[in-house]
Amino acid sequence: MRSGLVVLESEALRVTVNPQVGGTITAVVHKGLGASVLGTTPWEPEITTPDSFAAPDESVWLTRYGGGWPLLFPNGGDACEFDGVFHGFHGEASLAPWQAEGKGAVLRLHRRFVSVPVEMHREMTVAGELVTVRERLRMLGKRPIKVMWGQHPTFGSDLLAGDFEIQSGARQAIVDDGYDPPLNPLHPGAGGTWPIVPGKAGPYDLSRPDGCVAALVYLQDFASPWMAIRRLDDSIAAALSWESTVFPYAWLWYELGGNQDPPWDGKTRLIGMEPNTTWPATGLADADRRGGRLMTLQPGAEKTVTIRLHVFKPKGPIQGVDAAGLAL
What's the DSSP call for residue 200? Predict the structure, then answer.
């Protein structure tokens, strides 16, 4: 085991966490199925705490990113100056070290942030085929602040090693209007009813991406807040669910060999299913300028959210997720 990593286990799952870099969940393996569901990158990330927790751009942030499940707070997307504070790419929480305690099936993490007057407690629990992440933040400042808060779980590995489909409780999808690499099949800024949106070659089914794809879509208007990826051979599936009162949106990021620029080099297969307070995914300053919904924290405010990941062998299409986080 590499130094600093913590392993949580149930009878079904093995979950690896790096408290020194964002408290990131770096791997989730179903032991009985012998399958891994979180994605990885074609480069080996640094696993030690960086000198600065405010990455000036994506390229610097990627030196600590190897896939997995980071936390985005208090910024998501581009680095920017906002309300007199510089916020790094994807926010302090994704790179900073977290105080950690626990073993076996439970890990507790804590951090008092530098970029905003907020402290956060996180608890990760593994039971059976379910990973549960509970987060609680408390606002310590004396005047209101605006933040972005979101999850950045990226799926790949065995989950995307065969034909697959994406399912969701969302009703609406909007394509990002600024992200348009050469292998983006979608019309920037177009909207539609899940899973169909306008594509450059006609209607595009977001649930069945085909070939090399690089795209970013925002899901909203959830009948029920969940998303899932199922291998069509029913060998493995992963269903993510959360509380929509905190995360009314989800960023759906496709990186299926579609980004030819370094360090991606067309070799990365990731699907990001990312519950968030806000869209677009362009950082606090730009989201605010464009009228995006930021989360306002009042002095003394406390916010809590629970996110659940069910990793399992499916029996056909997933119909939804129950209140305990188990796929139906």
Answer: B
